[in-house]
Amino acid sequence: MSALVAPNEVVTRALLRQVTVPGLDRPAALITLDNGLDHTKPNTFGPAGLASLDEAISAALAAEPAFVAVTGKPYIFCVGADITSLPALADREQALEIGRLGHRVFARLRDSAVPTFAFVNGAAMGGGLELALHCHYRTLSGGAAALALPEVSLGLVPGWGGTQLLPNLIGIPAATQVILQNPLMQNKMLKPKQAAEMGIADVLLEPADFLERSLQWAAGVVQGEVTVTRPEVDRDMWAGVLYFARQTLDARLHGAVPAAYKALDLLETAKDADFATGTAAEDEALADLIFSEELRSGLYAFDLVQRRAKRPAGAPDKGLARPVTKVGIVGAGLMASQLALLFARRLQVPVVLTDLDQSRVDKGVGYVHTQIEKAVSKGRMDKGTAAKLYGLVSGSVDKSVFADADFVIEAVFEDLDVKKQVWAELEKIVAPEAVLATNTSSLSITAMAAELEHPQRLVGFHFFNPVAVLPLLEIVRGERTDDATLATAFAVGKQLKKSSVLVSDAPAFVVNRLLTRFLGTVFAAVDAGTPLDVADSALDPLGLPMRPLALLQLVGPAVACHVGGTLHAAYPDRFDVSENLRRIADSGQPIVVEDRINDEVAKLLVVGDQPLTAEQVRQNALDALAQEIRLMLDEGVVAEAQDIDLCMILGAGWPFHLGGITPYLDRTGTSERVTGRRFLPPGAASLRA
């Protein structure tokens, strides 16, 4: 223990008390994990926390209880290891020791002759969920907000038994989903019902009286009144599932995420190896990964998402925000309808859509109603909430319905003159202090507001599609946008449960500007004669969420051409719209069909005779990103490089193992070669000091 380093550990204490449970002739031992802070600071385990748990288990067993149960403070069970202490580990031996310590302490619950229970009352992730898996039985609260083994997303593996226990509890297909698939899908969490259906928990209980019912249920198990049955794990399909999983990883990551492949190896070990052998393999894998560049980038990205995203740089005093009691949405197309549903669900205020004719309005409101019905049918929304939302969302062809709206957002055709016309008309209708927000993806907020009587109340409010999934919101300050408008925009963004980043009024803002430069470089290679498949696969070693052509298809070639044109007008020396891209957009044909490049699209291309290698395409793309990021920082588009990375992670789905993008550009030497200096200080998101 003394060799382990955790200088900033907030110690999670294991508090033991004896509990009398009706029907039992001996008290039960209840261990509560509590770091002494509120639910916004979850329980984690560092060396001192593990020592406290170890002592509590010893004391509990010494009292010869009817059973031992572990639970957490309100709303939180435990979210795992204190990952902030990992960079302080001095060498591989210390990394091995932290793995072995967790295994030794948790194994006491698994190996106990006294029945052990985990009462999972709230969030349980990583080592917290692994602690629960070591117990003989598990109850789960229906109010538990987050359940996951997210380690692979950070560049680690579940290192305290998860890779060995979970597949042997719930089977290899479900375990692969939890350990590999979910972390690589923007760290997707399990819902309590889903976790219970998988077999992670033995019983799902209501949160209101969760502890009391858990104690009663545990007493029933001890007395033999409750029988826990678990289906036999199918071992015949083990190899096939892992073979398919490896193929999927290769197709998506191309070896770029070492943690994912180590997790696969550990899952393979779990089929036949004894528990000691499997956990020893976890220790070795963990020790290897702790000293990897991918982990440093993952921890950097995790910090951005967990901390910086919640305290947006440059946001004005939230006390300046005005209340929003009604929202207006100009337009009733797909984007507008998605926004209507989001605003109604999160703000719980009336939302009204308008469009040019009644049929469009009816279609937009109908979309909202359909999505509500789907949520009810899938058990994601109760009928009472649905009825309320039906009543909140309405539509009209008469913009006078916006007269009492406090916040009006437009989602109309991406044309500056069209948007200026919308605002000129609305300004005569809405109250003088109503916030006007534009969902433009590339146009100037300042130009849009230039002829308004109150230009200070126009703000950029740029969502990413699909609206319900991607968490980023680029909040754009025009030259005359005032602090009250900006504060209201940030307050609304928080209510919408989006992560907002303050962006200055520069063409295409952050994500679209970088993705356009990125795609432009790839298409420049195609124009020069590089085969489509070579250009498309050139970035594979980065392990991006999708290849360039799939990204282009998601964005839409026509939209890409439009944004490219906006950027070409602003920066003609760096942005151009490829004629081949125009041909694809004009054809209306899909670029990718069943994960393959469409042969008909390939026939449309007119190319040169100077093809590039995949390595040249990749380096050109990285060089272009480095140059553009440096220019954006010099222009003050965002406060710091960290905001660029946050935008790319949350708005474009770029992976944690890259740290967004700037850590990767730094550690490959691209930043210094292209711009003369690093984006981040030495040692930030890197092993290199």
* Widest sheet: strand ordering: 12-11-10-13-14-15-16-17
Instruction: Please describe the biggest sheet, giving its number of strands, its sense, and whether it closes into a barrel.
Output: 8 strands, mixed
Distance between the termini: 27 Å
Specify the helix fraction band. Answer: 40-55%
Using the CA coordinates, give the radius of gyration.
27 Å
Kindly report the average pLDDT value: 94
* Total of helices: 28
Give the percentage of residues in beta strands: 5-15%
Low-confidence stretches: 1-6
Catalytic activity: a (3S)-3-hydroxyacyl-CoA + NAD(+) = a 3-oxoacyl-CoA + NADH + H(+)
Domain 3-hydroxyacyl-CoA dehydrogenase C-terminal: 509-588
Keywords: Fatty acid metabolism, Lipid degradation, Lipid metabolism, Lyase, Multifunctional enzyme, NAD, Oxidoreductase
Family: In the central section; belongs to the 3-hydroxyacyl-CoA dehydrogenase family.
What would your notes on this structure say?
The protein has about 700 residues and is an alpha/beta fold. About 45% of the residues lie in helices and about 10% in strands. The chain has 28 helices and 19 strands. The chain has an eight-stranded mixed sheet, sandwiched between helices. Strands 1-2-3-5-7-9 form a six-stranded mixed sheet, with helices on both faces. Helix 17 links the parallel strand 14 (about 435-440) and strand 15. Helix 1 (about 45-60) runs parallel beside helix 2 and helix 5 crosses helix 6. The two termini are about 25 Å apart. Residues about 1-5 have low confidence and may be disordered.
